[in-house]
Amino acid sequence: MNLITALARLLIFPGLLFAVPAAWFFLWVERKAVARMQGRVGPPFMQPVFDFIKLMGKSTPPRIGIGGALMRAWPLIAVSSAAGAVGLLPVLPASGGFQGDLILLLALLELPSICIIAAGFSSGSIFGEIGSAREAVLSVSYNIVFLLAVVSIAASQHTFSLAALAQQSASPLRWLGVLAILICLPAKLHLNPFSLPNAEQEIYSGPITEYAGPELAMWELSHGLEWVAATGLVATLAAPVVATWWAAALIFVALCLGLVLVLSVVAAATARLQIDTTVRFYWQCTLIFAVLAIASALFVRFRA
Amino acid sequence: MNLWKKLMCYSRRRSPWLFHMNGGSCNGCDIELVAALSPRYDAEQLGVRLEGSPRHADILCVTGPITHNAVNAIKTVYDQVLGPKAVVAIGSCPATTNVFVESRTLAGPLSKHIPVDVFVPGCPPRPDAIILGVAKAAGIIAERSAGDSPAKPVVMPLSGSACDENCACAKAEEVAK
Fold first, then answer.
1. C or N: which end of chain A has fewer Cβ atoms within 10 Å?
2. Contact B12 A204 (CB under 8 A)
3. Apex CA A165: angle with CA A160 and CA A170, to 5°?
4. CA A67, A69, A71, A76 torsion: positive or negative?
5. How far apart are CA A274 and CA A278, in angstroms?
6. How far is it, in rounded angstroms, from Cα A261 to Cα A299?
7. Are strands B49-50 and B59-63 parallel, antiparallel or unpaired?
8. Cα nearest neighbour of A37 on chain B
9. Contact in structure between B68 and B97 (CB atoms under 8 Å)
10. What is the pLDDT at residue A24?
11. How far is A261 from chain B (nearest CA, A)?
12. How many beta-carbon contacts under 8 Å exist across A and B?
């Protein structure tokens, strides 16, 4: 991957130029789907854009010292890492990539969550601290399953390169891994039934309670970009191999949109679980999937 | 006015986020405010969101006749809402202290303590009147931040029966446009 293709992927497609409108679109789809499920009409199409512009025009409280500087930095780090994660997705066939970019993608996908934990603690608000503690517990729970599932997919196909994974046709083993990833997505995106860190009726807005104005706009944007990156990862793993670039892009967007719809409908149809129920769900029920997936992947590999 | 300012003005009209503050209310107006977000009235069509943190909000919605206990909390929360902002007094209590007038437990009305932009009268006001008041407040935020003359407090008309030609939901759409 030379510098020009890398820049094109980061800045144009599937990077910033595509990812930011897609993030707003997915945020709208999420709100609209929830509204339709509740029998409401829901927000207009441009609502996330209006929200973003309005927040950019609001003032922020004075932030002093290193704590204040850190508080300003966390949302920016979250946005850039989520955008980087989207830029790594091998949407177009033969778009390059390098051995090990799957590991970089996982790290970039995890950074927004770490930023949220740090943001809650550095804000000094009691609600922020509770939200951060919950996010940390949640992150430890689902990440074991998430990482095991991704490793099982990589191990069964002998590669840590995203482009190579996207080029190979999906085996039954991969579907098991994709299923385990899907179960982790609501927790990764803070959706019901795992919306513990931002539980609005209990701890206000959780880690982002103290954020306002442009910083809050950055959190909203990073949440939207996380939507694109997380659904994009599943779409990359599940999409059939297509040679033409426009068909590949179309299938990618359609799969992402379908996933957003499914996750939003599940979020609207469920209530928030308690923290211990959530942890038990991931450690007791879902871990079996992941262990099964990685065990069979290793078995297949050693037999081959 | 350049394009960015126009866009900002339009966005401020279309994205009012509320923070709800109870100043000793009987809970009547609070229920009506929640009803405004319910499927029947669906204020989210105007971009309204009820926020948990005053830091996120544009419009502070105050209900109740402002008891002595509530005054300092309301002042603190008013300072926590960041500009440009507006205050909507929901119900007759924050406007006039209503039937509790001259009670020794009260420090109201609200306008003695913080500047109020929109009064929505009623005991309690109808949800469509509240939506109309919020849309009006969003318009005030947009006008004020665009540098127009400082807006005077607006008293919304008492809403009558639902959905005649003066229906508040029709007016709310006009205001939002």
1. C
2. no
3. 135
4. negative
5. 6
6. 35
7. unpaired
8. B39
9. no
10. 93
11. 19
12. 83
Helices (H), B52-126: 68-80, 92-96
Between A40, A127, A216, which is nearest B44 by CB? A40
Q: Give SS3 for B122.
A: coil
Output the pTM of the full model: 0.88
Q: Which tokens belong to A229? A: 């990156």
The pLDDT, as a whole number, for residue A288 is 81
**What confidence tens digit (pLDDT) does each residue in A260-274 have?**
999 999 998 988 888
Reported as half-sphere exposure (CB side, CA atoms, 13 A), residue B122 has a value of: 24
Q: How far is B125 from chain A (nearest CA, A)?
A: 22
Q: Are A191 and A266 in contact (CB under 8 A)?
A: yes
Q: Is the peptide bond before B125 cis (omega within 30 degrees of 0)?
A: no
Chain A residues with at least one Cβ partner in B under 8 Å? 31, 35, 38-44, 46-47, 49-51, 53-54, 56-61, 127, 200-201, 203-205, 208-213, 216
pLDDT 10s digits, A243-297: 788 888 888 889 999 999 999 999 989 888 888 888 888 888 888 877 887 888 7
User: SS3 for B129?
Assistant: helix
* Residue at token pair 């059939």: A240
Q: Where are the domains of chain B?
A: 3-176
Instruction: Tell me which chain A residues have a C-beta less than 8 angstroms from the C-beta of B145.
Output: 57
Peptide bond into B54 cis (omega under 30): no
Q: Give the span between the Cα atoms of A286 and A1, in whole angstroms.
A: 37
User: For the complex shown, is ipTM > 0.90?
Assistant: no
Contact present, A272 and A199 (Cβ < 8 Å): yes
Dihedral in degrees, nearest 10, Cα atoms B102, B105, B107, B108: -60
Tokens describing residue B112:
């003695």
pLDDT for position B89: 93
Look up the CATH number of domain B3-176: 3.40.50.12280
